[in-house]
Amino acid sequence: MPDKQPESTAGRPALDHISSLPMRVHQILGPSTRLPMRAAFHYDPADPLTVDVCLRPPHSPTVTWVISRDLLFEGTQGHAGMGDVRLWPSPTHPRPVMYMQLESRGMTALFEVSLSTLEAWLLSTYDLVPPGTELDGFDWDLFVERLLGDA
Fold it and tell me: What is the pLDDT of residue 6?
């Protein structure tokens, strides 16, 4: 369990639209080799459990990962995730960073993300949809109907 829990930040105006965070991240290719690239984190209150992470490598198509919002937040506080997505803050880096390791089809990529920027943005998403309310108003009957209708 993380030391800091997400909570609504009083005094900050609540947003009522899709929240995006464009930023520069670095893909770590080796001990002293980093590839800077543009990235964007997108949060949509209509899909409150996830964050889309769009990575834009130079001269390559955009790659989008869908990551649990809570998992992303946990990764700002300590080691989080297993399997395809692993996140952790750096205890030794000179500036606050979080590492994001993504794995698919046997290939692994490691990224360095600004911890303070990401954490502040994630906390603002909890103003949009507070923790524990993500499924308030969810139509479970319609969900089951659609699920069984596709069977």
Answer: 63
What is each CA distance from 56 to 33, 37, 114, in whole angstroms? 18, 6, 16
Q: How far apart are CA 78 and CA 151, in angstroms?
A: 40
- Spell out the residues 6+ positions from residue 133 whose beta carbon is closer than 8 angstroms to its own: 48
pTM (2 decimals)?
A: 0.80
Taking the C-alpha atoms of residue 115 and residue 92, their distance in angstroms, rounded to an integer, is: 13
CA proximity to 125, closest of 2, 21, 22, 4: 21
**Cβ proximity of 136 and 125 under 8 Å:** no
Place of tokens 């990224």: 111
